[in-house]
Amino acid sequence: MSLVDEDEALIAAALKGSAYAWEKLVKRYESKIYNHGLRLTGNSSDAMDLMQEVFLGVYRNLHRFRGDAKFSSWIFRIAHNKAVDMNRRKRLMTSSPKFSSEDEGGEFEKFPGQANLEPEYRLGSQELNTRILAMLNALSMDQRSIVELKVFQSLTFDEIAELQDISANTVKTRFYSALKKLKVVSEKENVLS
Amino acid sequence: MSCPKTQYLLQEYFSEDLSAVARDELDRHLSDCAHCNAELESVLFVQRDIQQWQEQSVPHWDRGRELFRREHRAERPLSQLWLSWQWFPTAASLAMLCVLLFNVSVVSNESGFSVSFGGSSGANIDLRAQLAQFEQAQRGEMRQLVARVESRQDSNNVQLLQAVMEQAQQSTADSFDQMYAYFEQQRLLDLQDMRAGYEQLVDSDYETIRSLQQLVNYVGYQGDIR
Ligand SMILES: [Zn+2]
Questions:
Q1: If we measure between CA atoms, which residue out of A184, A72, A106 comes closest to residue A138?
Q2: Ligand 1 centre distance from Cα of residue A156 (Å)
Q3: Which of B10, B222, B59, B119 is nearest to A33 (CA)?
Q4: Is B108 helix (H, G, I), strand (E, B) or coil?
């Protein structure tokens, strides 16, 4: 049984009321979604919030899942929508003026407060992730999201374009400028350390 | 030093649907142009750099288990039952207990009802009569619950019965020996009734049998410690 078939079998069982199947399905994706959230938001509490919202969304819409797309793409679509919502909500809640760190503004801005990395990321074994998060922090939310989808989720430019409702060319441009920016940040860091 | 094609070419480099011709052209330019080549190396380096991300484990969470179980009416912890309508009968018995414990008298006359505490009203409360009344109410409730178990064969209700019995025990503990004895007797009577009921359920589905088995064990256990 392929992973995709297994997903579908679990979904069918969960829809029939099997709590076991539901948990198994969640366990298969929770780590991916949590780490996705960590890279997008830069802190574990927002990542947890996002993950829980994603699975609630999955749960509420499970009966709408048709199997014409892969479950993994579907769940990342939900994750994307939740991240956009969450970012918008956070911006409304923090009265700090909206700023755009890049030339291209969009629906994404940075997650407010994301610069404050939690202590756990500053210390010990997570040093590598801390450095990566610090680099990602330099990106606008648009760029960050595209880097996440392209580099970590291996989506194609077309898929990202569809997900974000922008042209594939815009995605390409933003991705390349994101990489350039990451390069600058990493060089700066290397000089400092 | 710089090259006018860098931006466009490197953007295309990461494209998945580049034609073979375009890919050849790109490769040729990259081998000829030191600037574009260096640029590509540096962005590839940074991409590899962030790809070193170490998966972090998810902090403990409930995985929507509660939500799922609530909505699919499967097993849930007893504490959850407090929120459910099925507690109405027990709430009624608790109210009844309060009436007894605090010696509340409800006097009905032409002008309506009057409620007083501590038995200071004219009506003389006969605890025995109240107990008898309570007993009847309790028996009625238990029968209803047993009937519900039989008719719906719902594991929730088996749990509810368990909870009702636990609750009844807790409420009567310590102070009111008399009531305790009554409850105990009542409980055993009701359990006998229920045991008779279980036998009829034995050929139902596995889940029900398992829940009933648990209840039977529970009942046996409770019987042993007394
Ligand atoms: Zn060039």
A1: A184
A2: 25
A3: B59
A4: strand
- Decide: B138 and B186 in contact? Cβ < 8 Å: yes
Q: Per the structure, how many domains does chain A have?
A: 1
DSSP 8-state symbol, A120: G
Chain A residues near residue B154 by CB distance under 8 angstroms: none
- What's the CATH code of the domain at A37? 1.10.1740.10
Whole-model pTM? Answer: 0.58
Domain boundaries, position B43 = 6-50
Express each pLDDT in B141-163 by its tens digit: 767 766 665 555 445 445 555 66
Strands B112-116 and B105-109: antiparallel
List C-alpha distances in Å: A47 to A38, A59, A138, A157, B114.
5, 18, 18, 25, 58
The verdict on ipTM greater than 0.85 is no
Taking CA atoms, A49 is separated from A37, A46, A56, in Å, by: 9, 5, 11
Helices (H), chain B: 6-13, 20-32, 34-50, 65-71, 78-81, 88-101, 127-152, 155-172, 177-201, 206-225
Q: Does residue B27 lie in a domain region?
A: yes
- pLDDT tens-digit readout, B45-85: 999 999 999 999 999 998 988 878 777 764 444 444 444 44
Q: How far is the CA of A191 from the centre of ligand 1 (A)?
A: 27
**Residues in A touching B26 (Cβ below 8 Å):** none
- What is the domain extent for residue A172? 3-192
B22 found inside a domain = yes
Tell me if B16 is assigned to some domain.
yes
Residues of B with CB below 8 A from A136's CB?
Answer: 50
Number of domains in chain B: 1
Tokens of B80: 């959850």
